[in-house]
Design goal:
With 585 residues, this protein is an alpha/beta fold. It contains 16 helices and 19 strands. It has three domains: 191 residues, Thiolase/Chalcone synthase (Peroxisomal Thiolase, Chain A, domain 1), CATH 3.40.47; 131 residues, Methyltransferase, Methionine Synthase (B12-binding Domains), Chain A, domain 1; 174 residues, Rossmann fold (3-Layer(aba) Sandwich), CATH 3.40.50. The model has no long low-confidence stretch (mean pLDDT 86).
C-alpha cells in the first residue's frame, strides 16, 4: 500500500517521502489483431505524452519498470514502443550534455507473477524501494533473453544482475535525482505510464528538535495485548541493532511512535537520553527484569469512567500543558500509560523531528479456517445413503424457522447549543417551502436562500463563504425531491471549508416514531445521504432531522430547525416529537 499526498503537505507534516510523481499518462490502443495483442504505436504515444507532461529530460531516466509479462510476442512489442518513444524524445530534447546514457529494464512479474489489478502498483513499490536503497535489483529468469528483443543501438539493457543505481550528472557535474518510469498495460488495449523521481530533501528544510543530553526523549509503545506489546519491543530492538542508528535518530524514533501510531490498551513508556539507554531498557523489558527508573508500564481501560472524567477536566488539561512546558517527562509518561491522551506535538512546537520508517504493528496471526471433519473410523462417511422413495414427507423432521426483524430505537437526547456561525448558511428550498425558508433565515445573521432553479447553475459559487447548509426540500408534502442539489452538495464538500462545515437535512413526519399520522415520504431519498456524510468525510458534520409533523406554525418549526443546526452533538439522526428531541440508536 502507498499513500498519495501533495508534496508541500508531506514536507510540512515531515512525512517520510519515498518518491515524487512527475507525470502520468494513459491511452487506449484501439483495435488490434486480438484482444490481448499490444499496439506498439499506442504504447510509444503514451510514453511520449507521459514524459512531456513530466517535463524531465529523457536522458535522466535510468530505469523502466516494464509491463513485462514474459511472452514471446508482448515483450518485443513493448521494447519497440520504448525505443520509438525515446528516440523521438531524444530528438526533441537535442544535446543535453549527458553522455553514455543507459536505461535499465526490469519487471517485478518475474519475482511475484502477474497480479492482475495490482500489477501496476507492485511495479511502483519496487521502484520506490530501489530508490530508497539506491539499487537496481535483477529480474529473475533472465539468464537467457528472448532473441526477439532488439536492444542493440538503444539505451536500454535488461538488469540481469543487482547493481548500484548511480545518479546521472548534469553538465556542471551535479547529481540529479534518480528517475524511473512504470508501464502497465491492461487487457483489451488500455495503457498507462507513470514517471517517478527520487525525493531530495530541501536544503532549507526547517530545523528539527534535537534534544541535548539534558533533554531526553519519551519512547512510547502500545498494543492490543501483552503478547503483541512484547513483539513490538522485539521488533524495535532488532531494528535498532540491525540499522545504522545514530543519536539524532532517537528523537525521530520517539516522535514517530508518539504521533504516528494509535494508542492502544497495553502501554510502555521509556524516558531515555541515548540510543544505548533505549536498547538497554528495551532489553530489560524483554528479560523481565524489574522495572527500572524512567520505565513506565500500564494498561488503559477505555471503559473507565473515572479516567473519562479526568480526561475531560479542564484543570487536568491545563496541568498536562504545564508539565509539557516544564518538561516533566516522568509525569507525562506516567499518565499516558494509564490511558490519558497527550498532544505530543506540543513538546516540539515548530521544530518537530522528521518521521522515519519504523516496524509496523505485529498483527496477531489467528486462523479462522473451518476445521477438517474427523471421522471415527477410516471409512468414507462422506457418501450419504439414498433416500427411501417410499418415505413420507410427513416423516421428515420439521425445522423451526425464526424471522428476525430489526427496528429503530429512539431515546431522549437534549441538545447543547454551540457558538453561532459567522459565515453564510445556505438554505435550500423550493416553492412549497419558501415561507418556511424565510422564517428559518431569521435565525442566521448571515444566510443565503437558494431556490431549486439556482441549484442547477452553481459553477461560479464562492464555496468558502458557506459555513453550512439547511436543506428544507424534505419539509413539503408534494414529494418534490430537488435532485439537482446532490451535485451542488458534492461541489460544496469538495471546494468549501475543510473545518466546521455543517449539513442538516430536514424532513417532516418521515419517521413513524410517535407519529400517529400518515408517513410523509418527501425527502426520504436524501435522508440517508445526510445520515452518512459525516462518516465518509471527516472534516464535516451532517445530520438528518425529522421535524414534528404536528407543528403548523412556521415560526415554531423554524426555531426547532435552527436549534438543531446549532446543537453541539455528533448524532447522525434525530427526530422531534411534542417538543422533545430524540436520537436514533
Amino acid at each position: 500500500m502507498i499513500v498519495l499526498k501533495k508534496l508541500k503537505d508531506a514536507e510540512r507534516d515531515r512525512n517520510p517521502i519515498y518518491g515524487v510523481i512527475r507525470g502520468t499518462a494513459e491511452n487506449h490502443g484501439g483495435r488490434a489483431n486480438t484482444l490481448t495483442s499490444p499496439n506498439p504505436k499506442a504504447q510509444a504515444e503514451l510514453l511520449i505524452k507521459a514524459y512531456k507532461k513530466a517535463g524531465v529530460n529523457p536522458r535522466t531516466v535510468t530505469y523502466i519498470e516494464a509491463h513485462g509479462t514474459g511472452t514471446e510476442l508482448g515483450d518485443p512489442i513493448e521494447i519497440n514502443g520504448l525505443k520509438a518513444a525515446f528516440k523521438e524524445l531524444y530528438d526533441t530534447e537535442g544535446d543535453s550534455g549527458i553522455e553514455d546514457h543507459r536505461c535499465g529494464l526490469g519487471s517485478v512479474k518475474s519475482n511475484i507473477g502477474h497480479l492482475e489489478l495490482a500489477a501496476g502498483i507492485s511495479g511502483i513499490i519496487k521502484i520506490l524501494m530501489q530508490m530508497k536503497h539506491k539499487t537496481l535489483v535483477k529480474s529473475l529468469h533472465t539468464e537467457t533473453l528472448n532473441p526477439y528483443l532488439q536492444l542493440k543501438d538503444s539505451p536500454f539493457y535488461i538488469v540481469q544482475n543487482t547493481e548500484d543505481w548511480k545518479a546521472v550528472q548534469d553538465k556542471q557535474g551535479r547529481e540529479l535525482p534518480r528517475r524511473a518510469g512504470v508501464s502497465s498495460f491492461g487487457i483489451g488495449g488500455v495503457n498507462a505510464h507513470i514517471v517517478i523521481e527520487e525525493y531530495i530533501p530541501k536544503e532549507d528544510e526547517p530545523s528539527e528538535c534535537n534534544p541535548t543530553p539534558r533533554e531526553p526523549s519519551i519512547v512510547v509503545l502500545s498494543a492490543k495485548n501483552e503478547k503483541s506489546l512484547r513483539e513490538q519491543v522485539e521488533q524495535l530492538l532488532m531494528f535498532i541493532r540491525m540499522r545504522k542508528i545514530d543519536e539524532k535518530d532517537l528523537s525521530r524514533i520517539a516522535y514517530t511512535l508518539q504521533v504516528g501510531r494509535n494508542s492502544m490498551e497495553e502501554r510502555l513508556a521509556l524516558i531515555v537520553g541515548s540510543i544505548s539507554k533505549l536498547v538497554e531498557k528495551l532489553d530489560d523489558f524483554l528479560q523481565g527484569r524489574s522495572v527500572a527508573e524512567h520505565s513506565y508500564r500500564g494498561k488503559a481501560n477505555r471503559n473507565n469512567e473515572t479516567l473519562t472524567l479526568i480526561s475531560a477536566d479542564e484543570d487536568m488539561a491545563l496541568a498536562i500543558d504545564s508539565w509539557i512546558v516544564k518538561r516533566k517527562y516522568a509525569r507525562l509518561a506516567e499518565i499516558w500509560v494509564k490511558g490519558l491522551h497527550i498532544d505530543w506535538n506540543k513538546l516540539y512546537g515548530d521544530a518537530a523531528p522528521r518521521r522515519i520508517s519504523l516496524p509496523t504493528y505485529p498483527f496477531a496471526k489467528e486462523r479462522y479456517w473451518i476445521p477438517e471433519y474427523l471421522h471415527a473410523d477410516g471409512g468414507n462417511n462422506n457418501v450419504l445413503p439414498a433416500r427411501d422413495k417410499e418415505a413420507s414427507d410427513s416423516s421428515t423432521e420439521q425445522r423451526t424457522r425464526t424471522t428476525c426483524l430489526l427496528a429503530k430505537s429512539w431515546v431522549p437526547c437534549p441538545s447543547v447549543s454551540k457558538t453561532k456561525s459567522h459565515r453564510i448558511v445556505a438554505i435550500l428550498t423550493h416553492p412549497e417551502t419558501e415561507a418556511l425558508a424565510e422564517r428559518v433565515a431569521e435565525h442566521f445573521p448571515q444566510h443565503q436562500i437558494i431556490h431549486a432553479q439556482q441549484v442547477e447553475h452553481f459553477s461560479d459559487w464562492d464555496w468558502k463563504s458557506f459555513d453550512g447548509v439547511v436543506d428544507l426540500a424534505g419539509c413539503g408534502t408534494s414529494g418534490y425531491e430537488m435532485r439537482s442539489c446532490i451535485e451542488w452538495l458534492q461541489s460544496l464538500i469538495e471546494h468549501g471549508h475543510k473545518e466546521g462545515l455543517m449539513l442538516l437535512g430536514v424532513t417532516r413526519g418521515l419517521e413513524s416514531y410517535l407519529n400517529p399520522g400518515a408517513i410523509n415520504l418527501t425527502g426520504a431519498a436524501r435522508a440517508g445521504l445526510y445520515r452518512m456524510l459525516q462518516s465518509e468525510y471527516g472534516h464535516l458534520r451532517s445530520r438528518h432531522m425529522d421535524a414534528d409533523h404536528s407543528i403548523v406554525d412556521d415560526g415554531v418549526l423554524a426555531q426547532q430547525i435552527a436549534d438543531e443546526y446549532f446543537a453541539d452533538s455528533e448524532e447522525a439522526e434525530v427526530c422531534y416529537r411534542n417538543g422533545m428531541r430524540f436520537r436514533c440508536c
